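Risk register update: the risk of archive-format incompatibility is retired. Evidence:
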Amino acid sequence: QDKKKNQKSYLLKMTRFLTLSGVLALVFLTAQSHSYYLPGVEQKLYAPNDALTVHASKLSSDTTQIPYEYFSLNYCHPEHDMNRYSEENYGMALSGIVLERSAYLLSFSERDKCQYLCPKKNKKGDIELFKWYIERKYRVNFIMDNMPAIEYDQVKSRALQKGIPVGHHTTAGYHVMNHYGIRVRYHKESAVDPLDDDDNLNPEFRYSVIGLYIIALPVHYGIEKSREEVLETCTKLFSDQFLPSEVSQYLNTENLDKEMHYTYHVTYIPTDITWKERWAEYLQSDEDQGYIHWLSILNSCMVVIFLTGIVAHILSRTLNRDIATYNSVPTDEEFEDQSGWKQLQGDVFRPPRRSMLLSALVGNGAHLLAMAMITVILAGVGVLSPARRGAMLTSIIYMFVLTSNVAGFVSARFYKMMNGPKWFKTTILTALGYTGVLFGVFFLLNFVLYLEGSSGNVSFVNLLTLLCLWFLVSTPFTFLGSLLGYKRQQIENPCKINKIPRPVPQQKWYLRSKFTIFAGGLLPFGSIFIELYFIMSSMWGAKLYYMFGLLFLVVVIMIFTCAEISIVICYFQLCKEDYRWWWRSFLTAGATGVYLFGYSVLYFFFSWETTRLSSTLLFFGYMSLASITLFVITGTVGFVATYIFVRQIYQLVKFD
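Archived output:
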């Protein structure tokens, strides 16, 4: 006993030390984070002569998913030294987003006329690099006043997608987009009529940027042309009277080994859309997408209603009848014929095998669920808006760290309830198990990006900061939660455990674990798979996902579905006198993560156009992490719901 007391005293002191160091590290990192700026928080107003700087974040492709720096191609540099901006927040740092100032410098006072950027003569290596980027459909991601540039189709008069193509490939050869028709939508502040004539700009007025649209064109200006000749040709082409059919004859470029001139012209379009509403047009979905979103909600609700009806029938009729029968005084014949879930009172709470692993998984699941719900709620109320680039990832990281005590507390409570003696090892497994897999895969994928020379690889300093958050903040918080959980009184189950385990009868095929786990995960996945398509398109495509309110509703529906399907399968299992429900309840709902990985495989083969090994590793690496995370969350929901159900029904029965 003295040895145990000394061990507990030592562990208590160590936990306090780790917690104190974690708090100090968190304070330090929070102080450092004040240097990061969350874009989109403050409105920026421009005078007529103020410069509108266009930044380039990266070159990206839906085909390869490997980003590169903007100036990896032979583009025009700014007149002064290239100003490479540091990451604006920690989420952008982990995403590998670095803003670079491009050569495009706009002003409200200079409009509707061609501007000459620079001449560029490409070497053989530059030509091959341009071809490589064009073949893989790379796009330039421009940003102005925190608004991403959208490719604009002049013929159809509508926006296409985020990013501007590097070029395109036809039978005539490769064509680089060397002319940009830039359209800046703006709102005049402190004006009576924001749509009045702005030909004579009033220096007293201030303007806010509402949107940035770019028409990208490949234009051949000829060989050995002077700056004045190029501007004269550009002015003729892109005057207000030009027609698309007249421009098309100038769009046939020659080989890239000749000198290429870069030009642009800017058009400013007034709008009555205010600065606070400027993201609405970017995120506006068409009617078909809105219909599909609501169809997803309706589909999920039907699944929940179906399962709720089954659970209600079990609770209101079947279960009440069973309890009434079990609580009545049986006759001799009834006593001999007794069977069902009451006969398991001495084994139903028998601790399962690998109780330490199960407790750690449940603790991690509760931790992830708390983090996910807080993040989705913040996004749903608009705190994590698309204007705050990197804010979503930053919020996820900090919420994960700050809620780590939930993992330790929940795992400790369940492991103590299972009479587990090795609480210290359980806490270590909770703190380092899931998180270790998460960071291990992330570091491996970051190494792949490093080998590819991608701008998306995370720097050593940021990786070190991530490790500090893990070891100095998250781990001590997990130990603190575990200590609080073990200090509380042990959860007492309503039934005592027999010394000798009861033999489990032979089960029919549809009640065996393989089939129930396979069937159980299908319904929760069915409640989210339609919305999952839009999430996948946002992760691996150029689309923006913004319907966080609907996402929150879908997550809630999925949670109810996991809980109900686990309860239903557990009840049928107990009726057949199979008391091994602990792991089965976790795996039944957790199979949703397995279905997610299967869905990602189908998405890869039918929606992706890549044969690169590095891109394949990135896709399956990140989708594996997403599947494992969903497996842990849904498994925890199913397990906790089933435990509450089993505990409640055995409390209602009288035992001798």
